[in-house]
Amino acid sequence: MRIAVDLSRAEWIKSSYSDGNGGECVEFTPGIAPTAGVVTVRDSKHPADPALLFPMEAWTSFTTAVRGGEFPAL
To answer: Does pTM top 0.85 for this prediction?
Structure first.
């Protein structure tokens, strides 16, 4: 399934889990999800690269699994 979402005027917020040392830098757009039913995520070090869009149900399942320790630490 393809979802078209206009991100040209989106306000990107850096995750509180992103470190300030150029490591894992994740941004999201909190205003997009309620209207489009998706969670948008991008690498803040490369903002011109394409964003990833996840259905809200899939994102919720993923973050629940991460919080529950279902993935090994890298």
So the answer is: no
